[in-house]
Amino acid sequence: MSTEEIHKVKHIIPPISKADYYYLCVSVTSGTFKLTVKERKLLSMLCLYYNKYSEISGHTEEDIFEEVFSNRTRTAIRKLLDMTESNFNNYVAKLKRRKILYIKDKKLRVKGAFIFPEPITTEITFRIELK
After folding, report:
1. Which long-range contacts (CB under 8 A, 24 or more apart) does 120-127 make?
2. C-alpha–C-alpha distance, residues 11 and 87, integer Å
3. 3-state class of 5 per DSSP?
4. pTM above 0.70, yes or no
5. What is the pLDDT of residues 4-30, one digit of tens each?
6. Are the CB atoms for 74 and 10 separated by under 8 Å?
7. DSSP 116
């Protein structure tokens, strides 16, 4: 494929939103957990808000997770995903049972493997090793 053809292809693929970026990352890496669509959407929203709050200087990881799981953020995520409070809490409980969410120092956290960096490039490469 020539350079000119590559540039044409780049224009065909529309840019994606940050929410879609995190959903894509969660979908690619969550295969062994067999997450439902709603679970993946919830997890991607938690990643989105984690990165949003981590941009604020001076915040420790503990502060960031406290904000991610605050009532204000939970409500915002529930509205975005069109979930009731009980549905949201049920999905959080499912993710805790699967050890994707866990409690440390009496605070709820997301497993590090599901915290993705802010999208800064136009190319994402995943490496999968099968043994």
Report:
1. 122/10, 124/24, 124/25, 126/28, 126/29
2. 39
3. helix
4. yes
5. 554 454 444 556 777 787 788 788 777
6. no
7. P
Tokens 């200087």 belong to: 57
Host H or E run for residue 62: helix 61-68
- Token pair 């439902």 is found at 36
Q: What are phi and psi of 109, to 5 degrees?
A: -140, 165
Residue 37's alpha-carbon distances to 59, 116, 125, in angstroms, are 31, 18, 22
Cα separation, 121 vs 9, whole angstroms: 16
pLDDT in tens, 61-111: 888 888 888 999 999 999 999 999 999 999 999 999 988 888 888 888 888
For residue 54, give the amino acid letter. S
